[in-house]
Amino acid sequence: MALRVLAAMSGGVDSAVAAARIAEAGHDVTGVHLALSANPQSYRTGARGCCTIEDSRDARRAADVIGIPFYIWDMAERFHRDVVEDFVSEYAAGRTPNPCLRCNEKIKFEAVLDRALALGFDAVATGHHARIVDGVLHRSPDEGKDQSYVLGVLTREQLGHAIFPLGDSTKAEVRAEAARRGLMVADKPDSHDICFIADGDTRGFLADRLGAAEGPIVDESGEVVGSHEGAYGFTVGQRKGLRIDRPAADGRPRYVLSIEPVSNTVTVGPRSSLEVRAIEAVRPVWNGPVDAPREPLDCIVQLRAHGEVYGCRAQVSGDGERLHLELDAPATGVAAGQAAVLYLGDTVIGSATIASAA
């Protein structure tokens, strides 16, 4: 059965090939590019595949080659509120957010999907490297490009209206297909940086919005070993750029262990002190084949995009709004504000936001 599909076209190679595949399959496809900045010149340039003026032009040209209608939707205000302001406020609170994950959740699969359904579309298609099988999210076969982690926050209803046409393809196959189809974005570089930080200087971006706030850097004993101009400039697990006045007694590197925004204190210590085996997370979303586990569930968890996975036991408590994870092996660099995405094999079963770890 032919569907009315809205193809989100970022201007990169993945979304262009995804739109082409859906159109070729006989669906009624309309392309849409999301304008995410009221001042596009303030965002990255250089054809990196997300959010710039060049990207909107590349998306339009791809739609012309495919032969589908194309529109630009202004999402700048919503993006600034739900992604940029969230990014700043999370850092101010001592947490480490993932803006791409938040963009998927709040923009591409909330604001855009809601508008698409209201306009009579059946589904939204994107160029994400992940698979949906019977409404359930799975990893991509291309492990290096798998994006199931940043999609793990989606609800079952949202996944039910999502199409990922690249689910069974590797990135190399996508680029080769783009070239065969005559899409000019075939060799366009992937986007890696945060799109709304033009020069890649996250600390400078936050300083402009939060201001300088000098505070101490202390070791695990509480002794002051340095100072900083804003705790928001650090993240758990960070080793470089600590500006510590004197080396550790054992001569080994120090890492950021914790960030306390109220006292504006950054605590540092040895790598071994970063190890955690227990994680508390909040606001769980269950979007796979199992519901919230009231008894310990053996599964695996991914704690960062393209990060390692760990065997664990997952269990919700109380009203189901808290999730406890016991890891089989210690993890390092676990930061509050990041997502913990749970899997059974390559199947996503849910996610939650990390609140604390020990």
TrEMBL record:
It is found in: Cytoplasm. InterPro entries: MnmA-like (IPR004506), MnmA-like_C (IPR046885), MnmA-like_central (IPR046884), MnmA-like_central_sf (IPR023382), Rossmann-like_a/b/a_fold (IPR014729). The keyword ATP-binding applies. The active site is at residues 103, 195. GO terms for cellular component: cytoplasm. GO terms for biological process: methylation; tRNA wobble position uridine thiolation. Its EC number is 2.8.1.13. It is an enzyme of class 2 (transferase). The record marks 128, 338 as: Interaction with tRNA. Residues 145-147 are annotated as: Interaction with tRNA. ATP binds at residues 8-15, 34, 127. Its main location: cytoplasm. SUPFAM superfamilies: Adenine nucleotide alpha hydrolases-like (SSF52402). It comes from the Bacteria. It catalyses: S-sulfanyl-L-cysteinyl-[protein] + uridine(34) in tRNA + AH2 + ATP = 2-thiouridine(34) in tRNA + L-cysteinyl-[protein] + A + AMP + diphosphate + H(+). GO terms for molecular function: ATP binding; methyltransferase activity; tRNA binding; tRNA-uridine 2-sulfurtransferase activity. Keywords: ATP-binding, Cytoplasm, Disulfide bond, Methyltransferase, Nucleotide-binding, RNA-binding, Transferase, tRNA processing, tRNA-binding. Residues 204-269 form the tRNA-specific 2-thiouridylase MnmA-like central domain. Residues 278-354 form the tRNA-specific 2-thiouridylase MnmA-like C-terminal domain. Catalyzes the 2-thiolation of uridine at the wobble position (U34) of tRNA, leading to the formation of s(2)U34. Belongs to the MnmA/TRMU family. This is tRNA-specific 2-thiouridylase MnmA.
